[in-house]
Write a structure and sequence with these properties.
The complex is a heterotrimer of chains A (about 625), B (about 250) and C (about 230). Helix content of chain A is about 35%, strand content about 15%. Chain A contains 17 helices and 21 strands. In chain A, helix 3 links the parallel strand 1 and strand 2. The longest helix of chain A has 25 residues. Chain A starts with 16 loop residues before the first helix and ends in a 14-residue tail after the last strand. Chain B contains 8 helices and 7 strands; from the N terminus they run ββαβββββααααααα. Chain B is elongated. Chain B starts with a strand and ends with a helix. Chain C is mostly helical. Chain C has a single domain, classed as Fumarate reductase/succinate dehydrogenase, transmembrane subunit (3 helical TM bundles of succinate and fumarate reductases), CATH 1.20.1300.10. In chain C, about 70% of the residues lie in helices and about 5% in strands. In chain C, helix 2 crosses helix 4, helix 2 packs parallel to helix 9 and helix 4 runs antiparallel to helix 6. Chain C is elongated, with a radius of gyration of 20 Å. Classes of the chains: A alpha/beta (about 625), B alpha+beta (about 250), C mainly alpha (about 230). Chains A and B meet through helix 3, helix 5, helix 6, helix 11 and helix 12 of A and helix 1, helix 2 and helix 3 of B.
């Protein structure tokens, strides 16, 4: 049975939709809020802000995270900044412009109404964070500083050195901590959600595993908020934290929530390249580096000279050459793809030849080393720590890496999935970034969802629905628990010969080669075949050490990999289905003569939501209607 | 290509919180200078799994020095020999072929061992929950620029707010004191006008919680600052004491 | 907040240790300078001692204050040491300092040892001198001298007598070296404990503290050695 997807976009002109929505919703009586238990899974920017805000409103919140503390969620690693349409620099920014840039940046594959709401809310987020004590960068006059980021034509990015994500997350964490101290949030750290429990078709609980004791626990509530981040680790190597995973979202998907646009993956252009087989993850260098760094490769193939020995005329500053107006500041997808092309042509640099130079020599001679150190000192230090090379003296070597996944569980305007009572926030949902996310927009979305959207939409759900009391003795909990336990036992019993890491690395290779920066029909077909075979082999031959009853990271990773092995196939299928190039999704068959992405708006202006059943996936389309924005070809020339 | 190194690891193994622990010595024959220290442990674990032994459990997540998950004592120093570096960003090029490395968990009564190198640092969360925040409900904030804050104060606040909560300060302190962690948050919020209304209750509540968790007292060894991956200064501890005096005296 | 909590709180304990520590440094400095009066002759020394005892009730107030300072300082020191043992019941197999900016040193790690030695010494010292022959409750006609016609305690004679013994002269000197070690960390630490510290000040205060510690120590050691080697 195909689910019907209704985006529930409110009536009225774009600019009035959010206001109209708020005017029309039902409210939960303050005295009744305490009677509602809300389960919030994940404690990143979306989950942390949602949990604290709902607790402030008076709801009874239970919060879950897989880390040892809610403060460690992967939002902490975001470096660059957070956008808002404050227009403090007086350089022409407006809510409309932020909205427009985000829709355009997403290559017209996101929902207008959601994005406009995001832009409207952006300003409140900054107010909230400053009030929490987030130490944003300031000017000498004491007011907030803004910078231009990721190719934006206005300076709308607020930042706290290269640690903006950390500071915003700690703000949310502190607000959560306050509510934990007050007893309004019950915190469950080192707990992993393994399943969603549906009662009468509504999300009423979750099954979790205590990662220290292995015990399976049942938690009941009136709604479940999934704030579990993205699935970039399907590629094994990514900038995501090692524990980031798709499991909670995937298990919800298997319980009926549709998964939207899974193939929309963002490959970030400025990461430190892979150095060897043992590589466990990739480290991002903030793209603010492209403000002053110049990207180049040698003009000659296989040029092994040291960068300083390659004369100026033998260098190809390919971004400046191909995109004279944006130059090194082209959006992430464009920069990444061009780095790949340079390496494909045999012009890559470094030991592995899978890297391009990011050179600061010109900026240092123009502005002085001190100015560069003030802007990027901590990034340069980090680079030197990892590579052992000094970027003040020799150009950085960078290469693209998987960084963010725009796809995720499908949600409507209220951030509710097609499963009633299951809300999905932050990177875990698909909603706001279309086919490509702009820099400094992820933090904005996570906090918008948690601080300012969910308090309204969840209240509306709770007030509009009859939610009879459910206890963890309910049959549905028992069934879900049995299934979770069975999978754990199965994983431990196989006792094959290949480790979880070996399988994961293999999956990553398939994904990167065929479902990466540049995709072809043939490659995607190959990927589907290879992933299917790998998945079957995994269930026959995986070697998971240890037991269930103690901390066992390999067991945790095995369960997550089992889900990645299913997701990977769906990503390839989605990429195959989408016979166009848009944003982070680039199909080689659909490019202009100059090698630029070619969208097909007639056929693909829709959200591809995939519904799961035992017999496989079926595609459900949510058509995207653009009332306020005219679809144009992105051009950064 | 780079040469591989033979590295011996003497690692603390402990099956559970109450189990008797012991050191085990392992050899990783093909370590690479470009590896991070945690990748060395990964390689060791793959070796162990293949030879039917339990892998060494250690906390790790972002592996770029910001989440604060990882942390072990490497040859007697929390996070190892490289200054201002969490052990996920410590690279093997600082070692040479044939070296033996001793790896131990954080040792503190307030950080009980869960397994092998993994410890329970929830005491830190309780210290923050005691008062390490500014009480502001979502939606109640005024415009962000209505409160100018001197750039120098904002920069200092950021220095102190950079704490990643890894616990190295406690691990390295001869007294197992959590003063640097606690003081960093108190100092961050004390630098900002937003933090002023609650400054007195904050410092007393957080200091009391710190004592309740069973951390030792500070003896001003300043070892914490030396191992802090973010280089947070013990001047925060001086600030915490000033804040405390103000709270007690007035 | 109740004063009881202040005494128990980690920060309160450090404040008290710091304040009493600095008070005791001032006392040690004053005592050391008083000792040096001996270099001007027995009479000068006895006059100084006589001046102190003639303060009467004021002296008792000082003495009571001193006793209180010592007791608080010692009991806090022991509590902090004991607390640190409890906070880390299982130590490291290998442990070393990470180096600068750590201030960890033999001096900082041995505060409890040097402190306890000084405390024991203090008791012996009081028995030997303050309550020694000619002192309160221990009248001894052979330790009476005359100052400007008035009879007064001949403390100088007692000091010379004691420091003629190598055991006492060198024992005293060694303990004073312990004091130097204690103060080398202690003086800087007290300022840090009182919150009077900024990163830029630390090296300066640490340096000056070390110089003051050595000066106090040398001043104390000068007297016994000068007497033992018959320089004065």
């Amino acid at each position: 049975m195909k689910p019907v997807l209704d985006s529930h976009i409110p009536d009225g002109p774009l600019k009035e939709k959010w206001g109209n929505y708020k005017n029309g919703i039902k409210l939960v009586n303050p005295a009744n809020k305490r009677k509602h238990t809300v389960l919030v899974v994940g404690t990143g920017l979306a989950g942390g802000s949602a949990a604290s805000t709902l607790a402030e409103l008076g709801y009874n919140v239970k919060s879950f995270c897989i880390q040892d503390s809610p403060r460690r969620a992967h939002s902490i690693a975001a470096q660059g900044g957070i956008n808002a349409a404050k227009n403090y620099p007086n350089d022409g920014d407006t809510v409309w412009r932020l909205f427009y840039d985000t829709v355009k940046g997403g290559d017209y594959r996101s929902r207008e109404a959601n994005v406009h709401r995001l832009a409207e809310i952006s300003n409140e987020i900054i107010d909230q964070c400053v009030a929490q004590g987030v130490p944003f960068a300031r000017e000498y006059g004491g007011l907030l500083d803004n910078r231009s980021f990721g190719g934006a034509q206005v300076s709308r990015t607020f930042y706290a050195r290269g640690q903006t994500g950390q500071q915003l997350l700690l703000g949310a964490y502190q607000s959560m901590s306050r509510q934990i101290g007050l007893g309004n949030i019950e915190m469950f750290a080192r707990q992993e959600m393994l399943d969603l429990v549906l009662v009468d078709g509504k999300a009423r609980g979750i099954i979790t595993r205590n990662l220290i004791t292995g015990e399976i626990e049942r938690h009941a509530g009136d709604a479940v908020l999934l704030c579990t981040g993205g699935y970039g680790n399907v590629y094994y190597l990514s900038t995501n934290a090692k524990n980031s995973n798709v499991t909670a979202a995937w298990r919800c998907h298997k319980r009926g929530a549709t998964f939207a646009n899974p193939c929309f993956t963002q490959i970030h252009p400025t990461c430190i390249p892979v150095s060897g087989d043992y590589q466990s993850k990739l480290t991002l260098m903030s793209e603010s580096l492209r403000n002053d760094g110049r990207v180049w490769v040698p003009k000659k193939q296989g040029d092994n000279r040291k960068p300083k020995d390659i004369p100026e005329e033998e260098r190809d500053y390919y971004l400046e050459r191909r995109y004279p107006s944006f130059g090194n500041l082209v959006p992430r997808d464009v920069a990444s793809r061009n780095a790949k092309y340079a390496c494909d042509e045999g012009k890559g640099v470094g030991e592995t030849k899978l890297a391009v130079f990011l050179d600061f020599a010109e900026a240092i001679s123009r502005l002085g080393q001190e100015a560069i150190a003030a802007r990027y000192g901590n990034l340069f230090e980090m680079y030197e720590r990892i590579t052992g090379e000094n970027p003040y003296e020799t150009p950085m070597r960078i290469y693209p890496a998987v960084h963010y996944t725009m796809g995720g569980l499908w949600v409507d305007y209220e951030l509710q999935s097609n499963v009633p009572g299951l809300f999905v926030l932050g990177e875990a949902n698909f909603s706001d970034h279309g086919a490509n996310r702009l820099g400094a927009s992820a933090l904005m979305q996570g906090l918008a969802d948690g601080y300012f959207v969910i308090p309204y939409t969840l209240g509306n759900y709770l007030a509009s629905n009859d939610l009879p009391k459910v206890t963890i003795q309910d049959e549905a909990f028992a069934t879900a628990q049995t299934e979770s336990t069975a999978q754990i036992e199965k994983l431990l019993s196989i006792q094959g010969t290949k480790t979880v890491t070996e399988y994961h690395r293999e999956l990553g290779r398939i994904m990167w080669d065929h479902v990466g920066m540049s995709r072809t029909e043939e490659g995607l077909q190959t990927a589907i075949k290879e992933i299917t075979a790998l998945r079957e082999d995994f269930w026959e031959n995986v070697l998971v050490p240890g037991e269930n009853s103690t901390l066992n990271k390999n067991l945790e990773f095995a369960g997550r990999l089992a889900d990645f092995l299913e997701l990977g196939e769906l990503m390839a299928r989605d990429a195959l289905e989408r016979a166009e190039s848009c944003g982070g999704h680039f199909r080689e068959e659909y490019q202009s003569e100059e090698g630029e992405a070619m969208r097909n708006d007639d056929l693909f202006t829709y959200v591809a939501a995939w519904a799961y059943s035992e017999n496989g996936h079926t595609l459900v389309k949510e058509p995207l209607e653009y009332e306020s924005v005219k679809l144009t070809t992105r051009s950064y020339k | 290509m780079t040469e591989s190194m033979n590295i011996k690891l003497k690692v603390w193994r402990q099956a559970g919180p109450k189990a008797q622990g012991r050191f085990e010595t392992y050899t990783v024959p093909d370590a690479n200078p470009h590896m991070s220290f945690l990748e060395l442990l990964d390689v060791l674990n793959e070796q162990l799994i293949k030879s039917d032994q339990d892998p060494v459990e250690f906390d790790h997540d972002c592996r770029e020095g910001i989440c604060g998950s990882c942390g072990v004592v490497v040859d007697g120093v929390a996070h190892g020999p490289q200054r201002r570096t969490a052990c996920c960003q410590l690279h093997m090029r600082h070692y040479k072929d044939g070296d033996t490395i001793v790896v131990e968990p954080w040792r503190a009564e307030a950080f009980p061992i869960i397994k092998d190198l993994v410890v329970d640092r929830s005491a830190f969360d309780r210290i923050i929950a005691a008062g390490g925040y500014i009480s502001i409900n979502a939606g109640a904030a005024q415009d962000a620029n209505s409160l100018p804050i001197a750039k120098t104060a904002a920069e200092l606040a950021m220095d102190f707010a950079a704490c990643i909560g890894c616990g190295a300060c406690v691990a390295a302190c001869p007294n197992a004191s959590a003063s640097l962690f606690t003081a960093a948050k108190i100092s961050h919020l004390a630098m900002l006008p937003q933090g002023a209304p609650e400054r007195k209750s904050r410092v007393t509540a957080m200091v009391n919680q710190m004592a309740e968790e069973g951390f030792g007292d500070c003896s001003n060894h300043a070892e914490c600052e030396a191992v802090c991956p973010k280089g947070i200064s013990i001047s925060t501890i001086a600030t915490m004491r000033r804040e405390y005096m103000k709270a007690v005296l007035g | 907040m109740s004063s009881k909590n202040v005494f128990r709180s980690p920060v309160g304990k450090k404040l008290i240790t710091g304040i009493t520590g600095l008070g005791l440094v001032v006392f040690a400095l004053e005592h050391m300078i008083g000792n040096l009066a001996m270099f001007s002759g027995n009479d000068a020394y006895n006059e100084y001692a006589h001046f102190l005892s003639s303060l009467g009730p004021l002296l008792y107030v000082f003495e009571a204050g001193l006793v209180a300072f010592f007791l608080f300082h010692i009991s806090n020191g022991i509590q902090i040491w004991y607390g640190s043992r409890k906070a880390r019941p299982v130590g490291y197999d290998s442990y070393r300092s990470a180096g600068k900016p750590s201030q960890q040193s033999v001096s900082s790690r041995s505060m409890i040892v040097t402190g306890l030695i000084l405390a024991v010494f203090l008791v012996i010292h009081l028995i030997s001198f303050k309550f020694g022959p000619g002192g309160p409750g221990n009248a001894d006609p052979s330790y009476v001298t005359s100052l400007g016609g008035e009879p007064a305690r001949d403390l100088a004679k007692l000091v010379r007598h004691k420091f003629d013994s190598p055991f006492y002269a060198f024992g005293y000197s060694i303990v004073m070296l312990m004091l130097v070690v204690h103060l080398r960390h202690g003086i800087w630490s007290a300022f840090q404990s009182l919150g009077a510290m900024r990163p830029s000040l630390t090296p300066l205060v640490y340096g000056l503290g070390t110089i003051l510690a050595i000066a106090i120590g040398l001043g104390f050691i000068a007297l016994p050695l000068a007497i033992y080697f018959h320089i004065i």
